[in-house]
Specification:
Number of strands: 0
Number of helices: 18
CATH topology: Ribonucleotide Reductase, subunit A
Distance between the termini: 43 Å
CATH superfamily: Ribonucleotide Reductase, subunit A
Largest sheet: none
Helix content: 55-70%
Shape: globular
CATH architecture: Orthogonal Bundle
Strand content: under 5%
Bound molecules: fe (ii) ion
């Protein structure tokens, strides 16, 4: 119960902000998901969670190939398929607590300078690295399952044939990502965490919303953009060879997905929504950015490893001020904010809100259509 109240208190600023900005429509569309995620905690303690969906699928009987850039992405996707079982070396032995090939450097553990961490033995530090990485990769796994469903929904609902064809490849890609992360977590790290409440709220919100473009906005632009940043960051910092190889494959797929999301929404928002509807999307994207920013407090990892030693408020303060948080925020939001600008959802009306939460500085970074997979692999 205490943690439910703390989760709600932690989302106070989100709700307050939505009210202050008169984002009542956004608030209304988020209340159901927030109630299910933060109060009922429906993503937790259950073997599965049923969600009732309501959206329209669209058949296209003309089969017009009207979107050449999406068609190019579809061709690239078909030529870039890989097989998670055969193309990754699962026979490689992974020591998740190795000091020689650490999963992540200690420098990015939030508590690195805290006396309680400094006092740990090298072996205990190894256990901390394994726990934190298992927490992060578990959130990626849950996000990938959301992406698999969202890709399937969007394939049905999007109006253009080229988008449906590309969507069919994304469904396969996301299935492979679920397989890859799940195998690594269960066979190599031997640890799986439940979904974080904030991530659950975002996934629930975009799955249950009937408007296809919000599914695109939530998944292709926000969650996948953030995942792309996080994958690039982890890939360049991990010394574990199998994880590095696996992230290289996944990043190459995700680069196409985000690019596709930008193409679809840039066209749709420029030509097919009213100014009032555009503003509503802009507000929705901001609230989601706010939720995702809070996702990285790693409370599930804290509960298991540090709840005996630190209060949750103290933990939050350390994480928010840590180098890890600063680097993470930077790499993730530089993959989101330029794309929001490109699709027309960063008008002067909302810039100051992004500035207030420290995210506006990324607006001049390159958007997805201007980045190659190599740029993303090298975290450029
Ligand atoms: Fe994915
Ligand atoms: Fe994806």
């Amino acid at each position: 119960m205490t943690s439910i109240l703390e989760s709600l208190a932690g989302s106070g600023p989100l709700l307050r902000n939505a009210v202050q900005n008169r984002n009542f429509k956004v608030l209304a569309s988020m209340l159901g998901p927030a109630f299910r995620g933060l109060v009922q905690q429906r993503g937790r303690n259950e073997a599965s969670t049923p969600l009732r969906l309501d959206y329209s699928a669209q058949f296209d009987w003309r089969y017009r190939r009207s979107e050449p850039e999406m068609a190019r992405l579809y061709e690239a996707a078909k030529a870039s398929q890989w097989n998670a079982t055969a193309d990754l070396d699962w026979s490689a032995s992974v020591d998740p607590e190795s000091a020689e090939h650490p999963l992540i450097p200690d420098a990015i553990i939030p508590l690195v300078h805290h006396p309680a961490f400094v006092r740990l033995t090298p072996r205990e530090k190894g256990r901390q690295r394994r726990g934190l990485m298992a927490w992060m990769l578990s959130q990626f796994l849950h996000g990938e399952q959301g992406a698999l469903f969202a890709a399937a929904q969007v394939t049905e609902a999007v109006p253009w044939l080229d988008a449906k064809l590309f969507g069919s490849t994304q469904v396969v890609d996301e299935g492979r990502h679920v397989e890859t992360f799940h195998t690594y977590l269960t066979q190599k790290l031997e640890k799986l965490y439940e979904i974080n409440d904030n991530l659950y709220v975002v996934i629930d919100a975009l799955m249950t919303d009937g408007r296809w473009d919000l599914k695109f906005l939530g998944m292709q632009i926000m969650i996948e953009g953030l995942a792309l940043g996080a994958f690039g960051f982890l890939r360049s910092h991990t010394s574990e060879p199998l994880l590095k190889q696996m992230l290289t494959f996944v990043i190459t797929d995700e680069a196409r997905h985000v690019h596709y999301g930008v193409l679809a929404l840039q066209k749709f928002y420029a030509t097919q929504v009213s100014e009032k509807e555009r503003r509503e999307r802009e507000d929705w994207a901001f609230e989601v950015a706010y939720l995702l920013r809070n996702r990285f407090l790693a409370h599930e990892y804290y509960e298991e490893h540090w709840a005996h030693a630190l209060s949750r408020a103290e933990w939050d303060r350390i994480v928010l001020q840590s180098e890890m948080m600063a680097i993470f925020r930077r790499t993730m939001f530089k993959r989101i904010v330029p794309n929001l600008k490109r699709i027309g959802l960063l008008s002067d009306r909302v810039r100051s809100r992004y500035e207030d939460i420290g995210l506006l500085e990324f607006e001049h970074c390159r958007a997805a259509p201007d980045l190659t997979a190599q740029d993303l692999l090298e975290d450029r």
